[in-house]
Amino acid sequence: MTDAAPRLKGILEQLLGAPLPVRIRTWDGSQAGPPDSPVLVVRNRRALRHLLFKPGELGLARAWVAGDLTIEGDLYTALDSLAGLIWERGEDARTLAQSLRDPDFRSAVRRLFAMAGPPLPPAPPREEVRRPRRGLHTKRSDKRAISHHYDVGNDFYEIVLGPSMVYSCAYWPAPPPEGTLEQAQHDKLELVARKLDLRPGQRLLDVGCGWGSMALHAAREHGVSVVGITLSQEQAAYARKRIAEEGLTDRIEIRVQDYRDVADGPFDAISSIGMAEHVGSERYLEYATVLHRLLKPGGRLLNHQIARRPQRDESSYQVDEFIDAYVFPDGELAPLGTTVSLLERAGFEVRDVESIREHYALTLRRWVDNLQADWTRAVSLTGPGRARVWQLYMAASALAFERNRIGVNQVVAVRTPESGVSEMPLRARVWGAPGPA
Question: Region Disordered: start and end of each range (predicted)?
Answer without folding.
Answer: 116-142
